[in-house]
UniProtKB/TrEMBL annotation:
Source organism (scientific name): Hyaloscypha variabilis (strain UAMH 11265 / GT02V1 / F)
Positions in coiled-coil regions: none
Signal peptide residues on this chain, from the entry's feature table: none
Keyword Acetylation listed: no
Name of the protein: Phosphoenolpyruvate/pyruvate domain-containing protein
Entry-linked Gene3D superfamilies: Phosphoenolpyruvate-binding domains
GO molecular function: methylisocitrate lyase activity
InterPro entries listed in its UniProt record: ICL/PEPM, Isocitrate_lyase_ph_CS, Pyrv/PenolPyrv_kinase-like_dom, Pyrv_kinase-like_dom_sf
Taxonomic classification: Eukaryota, Fungi, Dikarya, Ascomycota, Pezizomycotina
Catalyzed reaction equations: (2S,3R)-3-hydroxybutane-1,2,3-tricarboxylate = pyruvate + succinate
Key words of the record: Pyruvate
Amino acid sequence: MASVKRLRALLADTSKIVVCPGVYDGLTARIALNAGFECLYMTGAGTTMSRLGMPDLGIATLNDMRDNAGMIASLDRKIPLIADADTGYGGALMVGRTTEQYIQAGVAALHLEDQVVNKRCGHLKNKELVDEDVFLTRIRAAVNARAQAEGDIVIIARTDALQSLGFDAAVSRLKAAVAIGADVAFLEGFTSKEEGRRVCQELSPTPVLLNMVAGGVTPNFTVQEAQDFGFRIIIFPAFALGPVYQTVAKAAKYLKENGDLPKSDAESAAEFSPKALFTVVGLRESMEFDVAAGGKMYSNGV
């Protein structure tokens, strides 16, 4: 529960904003941890792409998401992980089970949305919503499951209602969710900075999360702008997805056309040696642990 307490403490400090790079596997999580971020975000789209090789269309299951979130959360139990939980993967019983499973996996916060179970990325068109009563049933199920569990988790209520129902209806859904126990509000897909300012004002003092999707429908905010507008959490889901796609696609094209990998200078080659990459994901710590336990395999290094 240390990470949940840490996240609640960060949210209680109104002078700061929680900045979360979007990660989707062990390597991207380690890179973000090594950079010194105080909180991570597990992107559902990235999890679906990396684990299943498929688009974010409600295809990933609870098991897919929980297992990935649990692995990422285990890398550093002190650092909070906020994880996408989509629609909760079913009715009230399944939402309750999802909440319990995320708590057991060491996740510090999850967000639940009001799309139908066959959902789609919040920055795509023609999203379908459930009735407000169904959405609130999901939130209530998560709140009740948290109360029964031997643990804690921050519950983030997300609505995708802005696109089809308008700003007032979307904010009304979020206010209702907060009234029954959600800790943080998340208005997805707003299209102007003024709407961002308004949602923070309307929901104050409840913390509001900003989803900063590169190339999405929401205008770009820097971290400082987001804080100035009143947001308390900002997530960058495509933090790793974009650079990985661009770099690997370029390398794949070069290899296909030239039968070799792109040449790099000596400094870059050393940076990407097997040992250097293993160090990113804990080589040194693993060796030290083995030696401390009396192991001999790594006493002379690798």
